[in-house]
Amino acid sequence: MNFNEFKDTVTSLSYSVSYQKNSMANLILSKGKYSGMNYIKVSEPLINEEEIEAVAKVLRSGMFVSGKQVEEFEKSFATFIGVKYAVAVSSGTAALHLSLA
Questions:
Q1: Contact 58, 64 (CB under 8 A)
Q2: pLDDT tens string 1-44
Q3: Which pLDDT score is estimated for 29?
């Protein structure tokens, strides 16, 4: 299969999935199936229970924009890259804006 055939196949599958009846019901992902069709698994996250609990702890605290964990992350990251300070932001866009300030 050459690139153009691959591109046409992906485009065709995309249109097929997006225009199916009851599309909200078809948003369920399970066991390698999407809307009754096989999909190519690009990657599988390697997340353990300790990491899941750490995220849950932050979410339960209600302090996921600022707070103790963010401060600890900023200090650890600054040390890791060998600078005095580091600032965590909420998105790549915010990081770009900050870098231009």
A1: yes
A2: 566 666 566 555 554 544 444 454 555 544 445 555 666 777 78
A3: 46
Q: Which residues pair with 38 in a beta bridge?
A: 33
54 and 95 share one domain: yes
Does residue 43 lie in a domain region? Answer: no
Asked if 69 and 63 touch (Cβ cutoff 8 Å), the reply is yes
Whether 62 is covered by a domain: the verdict is: yes
Q: By C-alpha distance, which of 45, 98, 52, 47 is closest to 74?
A: 98
Provide the residue count of the chain.
101
Structural domains in the chain (count) = 2
Q: Tell me whether residue 69 is in a domain.
A: yes
Provide CB contacts within 8 A for 101, sequence distance 6+: none
Residues spanned by the domain of 65: 49-100
Q: Give me the pLDDT at residue 21, please.
A: 45
Whole-number Å distance between alpha carbons of 78 and 81: 5
Confidence of residue 94 (pLDDT cuts 50, 70, 90): very high
